[in-house]
Structure formats: C-alpha cells, structure tokens
From TrEMBL:
It comes from Streptomyces toyocaensis. In the N-terminal section; belongs to the CRISPR-associated nuclease Cas3-HD family. InterPro entries: Cas3-like_dom, CRISPR-assoc_Cas3_HD, CRISPR-assoc_Cas3_HD_sf, P-loop_NTPase. One of its GO terms (molecular function) is ATP binding. Keywords: Antiviral defense, ATP-binding, Helicase, Hydrolase, Metal-binding, Nucleotide-binding. It comes from the Bacteria. GO terms for biological process: defense response to virus. This is CRISPR-associated protein.
Amino acid sequence: MSLDPRLWGKAAGLGEDARGAHRTHPLICHLLDTAAVAEVVWDELLTSHQRSMVVGALQVPEEEMRALAAFWAGLHDIGKISVPFQLHRAGPKNADGELLAQELGGERGYGFAAGAAQDRQSHEAAAHWWLVGVFEEIGYPSSRRRPQSQLSHAVAQMLGGHGGRYHPVVRGKDYRCPAVRHPGLGTGGWEEQRRVHFDEVRRVTGAASVPRGRMTPGAAVVLTGLVVLSDWLASIEVEIQARLRQEGWAGAPEDLDAYWKTAREAALRLVQKTDLLGTGFTRPDSVRCVGETSLLASMEGQLPDLVTEHGPGLVVVTSSPSEERTEAALQAAAALGYAAGARGLFYALPTGSSADSHMAQVHAFAEQALTGPWRSLLLHSSSRLKPAEAARQWAQAHTAGDVSAEPGEEWAPAANSWLNSHHRALLAALGTGTVDELLQAVMPVKFNVMRLFAFSGKVVVVDEAHARGAWGQKLMLRFLEWAAALRIPVVLAALSADKSVDAMLAAYHRGAGGAGEPMAQPRRLPAWSFVDAHSGRGHLPRQPAEAVRTSTLSIKVRDGAPYDEIQAALVPLVEAGNGRAVVYRPTPADAITTFCQLSQDLPGLDVSLVHEQMHNKDRWRRLAACRDTFSPGAGISGPSVLVTTPMLEHVRGLRFDLVVSGPAPLAGLLARAAQGAGDRPRLVVLQADDTSELDDVALVRRTGMVLGVGRTISMPQDVPLLLDEVYADELVDRLGEAAARELQQLDNRRAVRERRATGTAGWLQVPGPREHDGDLGLLSRDHPGMEPELLSCVLGEEMVHVVCLHQGSLLEDGVLKEKLVFESKRKRRPKPGQLVPYLIPVPQRLVEGVAGDASSDWRGMAALKNVLRLNMVPEDGTWVRTGEGRRFRLSGLGLTVDQLP
C-alpha cells in the first residue's frame, strides 16, 4: 500500500487556499520536519554529557544513536492516524464547511467501527499504545510480564509523553490488539497507513539499528526533551507555510527523499532562531591565593582542582547572606559549568523580589563566565506571562545603574522571541527566578520532564536553599536526587549548616548512587563542601575558609508602641545629619502608613519606600534606586531610611547603619541584620509589632525568648550556636508551667503543620530516579483530589496578579498610562506582554471571592487565568474599587486591600 498524503498533521494557522478550503500539512511531512529538527538538536543543542547519557544507556554508537533519535522524534505524532483525530469536528474544512478528511470515512479501506469517532484516546496515547507492539516486531527488547522494564515499551511511552504527560503502562494483551480497546485507532487502511508512515520515517532517517540497552532515567529525560523541543520547533506555523506541498503531491518515496532534503535545510534555521545555540562556560582562571582564607579565595583556589579530578557535582556554601556569598556561589557555578560542558545557568531564589534584585549580579557574572551569544530571562510568577518582555522592562528600570551598555538590547531576547513563552523560557541560557521553577520539575505537572531536560544542560544555583519550609525541603530533596542522577551541577547557598543542609547533601549522594554514609556540612561559618556526581563521595577543602570580616551585632529589643519606637530609633540619624537605616514592616499597608508618617514627622529625613504590592516596573525602578542610595559605595549625604517589608531580606548589595524590624524567626532577623554596615551593625526588634502572616508563631516566640531584652553576638561565629539555642528542646524547661504549656502547644502545631506539609509534598512528588521501575507514567501520575489549588498550596502562598484600569487605560503611579491593546477587533483579548510591567502581585487570601471585571474573552485566555482585572474610579487623588467585600486603593505608593465589615 502506498502512503496516503491526505492524512493531515497540521492545519491551524496555515490559512486558506484560493477556493476557501483550509490548507493542511501532510502528516508525513510534519513527521519528517520533526525528525530533521531532532538531528540538529542532537548535534548543536545537546551537551556532550546529555548525548553520552543516551548513548551509554542505549548501547549504540553515537552516529547510530543520532539517527535513532531522529527516527523516534519523527514517530511522535503517528497516533494522528486515527479516526478521532482525522475526523475531528474541529479539523480542516473545505469552503462549504465540510471536513476535508470526510471522504476517507467513505472509502472502503478507511471504514471504522461504530463509536470509533467518539473514542476519547488522545493521539499521544494512541502513539504509545500502537508503537509498543511495532517496536517489539522489529526486534526491540520486550517482556510480557514487565513491559515497562523493556525498551520496546519505554520508547513508546516516552514518545506518548510528547504532549507533556506520560501515559500508564500498556500490557501485552492490549498492545498486541490495541484497536480492540480503542476502536478509534481503526483497522484496515488505518493500520496499513500507520505501518507505511512508520517504515518511511525509518527508511528516510536511516535508523536501521536495533538498540539492546535500556531506557535509564537520564536517557528518558534527554530523549523526551529532544522530541518535545523538536516538535515545538517543527510546529512553528509561519515556517510550515514555507514548506507546504502543492496540491496533488503524491508522497511517493522519491517525493519523501526530496522533502527530507528540504526539511533538513530548514531545520538548522529553525534551531538558530531559538536564541539557544553557542553558549558555554569559559575556562576558569588558575587562582592560587597564598595566605588568603576568605570564602571566595578558598573556593577559587581549591574547587577547580577537585572538579578536575572528580568531575562536576554539588557544592554547598554556608555563610551569612552577602554579596561575597553570592559571588562565591557564582564562581563555583563557573567551575562546575566548564567541567560539565554546560550551556547556561539558572539562579533560583525564594521570592520574585529577590530574583529581581539578584539579576544585575547574575548578569554581570554571565558577561565574564559565559561564552558565545546568550539570552537572559526573568522567571517568576510576575514575569511568567512574557519572560522576555519582563527582562526588557527590568533592564530599562535599571538603566541608571549601567547594567549593560544597551540595557534590554543585547542580552534580553526580543519580545517576539521564540523563548518568550512560559513553557519554553527555562531553555534560555541564563535564567534568574524562583525556586518554584525547580520544584515543579519533581511534581506531576504538565511538562515537568521538560523542566528536568532544561536543567540537565545547565548549572543550577539555589540561594537561600533553606528558606522554603517543610514542603520545600521535601521537594528540594527529590530534586537533588534527580539532579545527581542526571549529573546536573548544583550550588546550594544557605545561612548555616543544620539537619536540612545535611539532608540535601544526603539526597545528592543518594541520587548519584553513592555508597557509604553521606557527608555532613561543617558547622563552622563560613564553610563549603563538594559532592561529586560520579561517585556521590563528599570532599572537604584542604584549607577551610575563614571569616575575613567579623563583626559584633548589637540586638536591642523594644516593647513600646511600634511607630514610637521606630521614630525614636531614627531621631539620632536626623540629629547627626547622616546615616542610613531600613525599617521592616509586616505588610505593604503598614509600610505605606509608616512611610507617610515618617515623611511628615521627620522632615530632615530622606524616606524611600519599596514593597511587593507595587507595579512590577515601579518595584524594579525602586529597587534599582535603592542600590544607588544604600549600596556600600553610595555617595549620598544626609540621613536616609528605606521603609519596606520582609521581601527585602533576600536582597543583596544594600548596607544600613541601623536595621529596625518587627518580630520574626531568628533566621529572618539574621538575614536582615546581615544588611548592617561596619564592624558593629545594629538591629532593633520591635517586640510589640505585628508579625507577618507567613511567619511561624512558635519560632517567633522562641526567638523572642532567646533574645530577651537584647543580645550582643559575634558574626558569623555565634550564628550556629544562636540557631541551635532557638530550636533547643531545653528552652521550654526555662519557663513557668503556663508559659511552657503554651509554647509546647505552639511547637506541636508547628510540628503538625510540618508533618502535613511534608506528607503532602511526599504524596505529590514524583518517584526518585531509582524508584519508578522503568514506568515513566509515574512521573505524570494524576492523584484523585490533586487540584491546582493543592499544587499552589504546596508551592507556597498562591499569588494573584492584579492589573488596574480606568476606561481601558492602564494605571501607573496614580495616573493614566497607555491604552489597553487587544489582539484583534473581533476578539477583545489583551496582549499579555503589555500587562507585564503593570502587574501587581497580591496574595490570593486578600482577594478571595473577588471575581474582578474581566470580560469572557479575557477569562478565556490561559495566560490571564491568574490576572485579576480591576476597573478603578478616581477618589481623593487615588484610584478606588469597592465591591465583593473588598476595597482596593491604588496610588503612587502601591496597592492596598481592605476587607469591608
């Protein structure tokens, strides 16, 4: 039977012909397009390590593996040769509105059983079901008893996952007669065409080899990434239009050979357009810091030799938060990246605001450490709509800081870049974002394996690795297991060594298949250690790092009215006529109120404000301005104070003579105190102030007990001791019976919350690389009750992004800005990229029950699902919206949300 070119693979976005019929791209052409792109991805985009993982697992020479990879990628959509797909009511139609494929159903060879058209099996699952048996026929290793353990099933399951989710194991009784269970697959001509397409893709790609190896976790991740990425690139509509075949194209073998040449010529151009090629790490300079004992000098002088001897792996850095620690983490990443042949870096932080503040330092590092062209994206919840446009707006906000010669022009992708999409953004060579992007790689969300694939070609740095609570700790351990199995170089930076840091070392050790006991992180500060990914063994530096700059932190606890204490602490700065201070307030509303009061009560004080509930670009501008005013080398004269919220505690590069904060867990207070300047930094804790809703009450209470009316500690030597004191069980013994009972109750509640969070995270996380027993479907398993809200709960506080408008115009700094631009006159859908600078992140709990003012067209866009539109009206110099039990007030100082009585 000859190949039937009427079987279509692509139609959406291809336009209509002169007669008004939808244009279609034959399925065989799309399969060959994808195979051709896979060749280029294999050659140009995969790292040598990624290729070696696949070659080693499948046990075939690299050139043969390249052909197999192209062959398998070309088979990804073979499930589209099925009744439900070809005859889908939304398929391509002629000028009269009739399905173009309708004629197939009337032909003798294409008959199908009753109900076949209603078969709900997806074309991805159909490929999985059908390919298992065909791979078995051509000699791929198979097993009736445990199909998931054999290559014939593993490759079919891998290809069936190209839509973002793998499908469950198919048993022998099903894959030998798949149309019995799923009549939509069809028999007769349908089966014959699947076999013809299969044979032609194999012939054209030259994939005659029969591999005898197995599908390891590393090979599965790399091959899945290759297939999905190739499919995405081969599906770019404007490129398909240039390759459409003329009417009457027969699809004979000679036609396919000619088309294969066309597809190969187009493939390199397609991959080059992604902004993904050519990035690598420079060779680290040989450094021998004789006599120097700083953290950075210790690592620069010893880590490259360890990596040269043992290969890349995990580096753990424990030190107080500082720019030096960040620089040490980045230098470790450079050494690991060069050794691994990595093609980029992802820098992960606890919050979007901290990612915003670190991007400048990460960018400066990239200019020195990365070779070739590279593109940088900002990746967190506020930037996810259009990451490239977020990066561009960030750069423009930092123009005064000379982030680059032409901010937003050289290193940020264009707004219309192929990377400017939330599923593809992680592939960018340089990403600065939140740790959630990592953790979702080990949760059964759509395209989680594509996340692992993106990270498998990079170095991953996790700053404040301890800052995500019990759920984050559990998921981080699973990510580190996968990272070790995939040989992903990782750098972890944490405040101090504790059980959680030791558990991270053990997880990487376990994922690398290490034997024996894992290493514990040294308790002294600063310190660093290394675990190689090849053996899982731990290595400590011959010359440990020493604290070059020590200081004496003075902590005073005040119990008066919070604002009175703030004012009293700042008056000496005003009287002296100089000094810089930061005041932490628990909420944005408190920060705005304090800012207004200080501006009025202390006229000699230069007061600044920054908090999370500001427009994205306003927050970016203010953070950039903070660097000009509060950085160590700033030449600003006169007394200055920055009023903020806990969002600032992860921001680096700021220095203050005085830090004022409400009560918080000790780790948070120490992070804020690390922003103190000089040898005797000062921290004032307002005991009577409110706590953040995200802070654990038991830890706040324990911290208050340990600090008493104040403490003086040596930094960094006393930090581990003070942390141990806060967590010590003996702390309860010092209290009277009633106080001890109350603290014990708070501790018990915290323990219950942590167990619940750990249990939920353990239930949601995917199996480890040695736990899925060859069944890739376990990486996509869908638990009953696993709703998006549960995922958000596990990933931390769910955020909603608010956009404020008045009569269709966006609001910024209390004034009307540009008009909202829609995609078309017919569909009143806004262009998501336009909204990015104007988004305001707000916790879901503050807007619970608020439907907003979006139209049905707006709500119908997946990209705007978590964007709450509010139509505001002017009132007393601000913009207000009242309704649904909430009062929203927007001014140049940000957004506040009040619950109405």
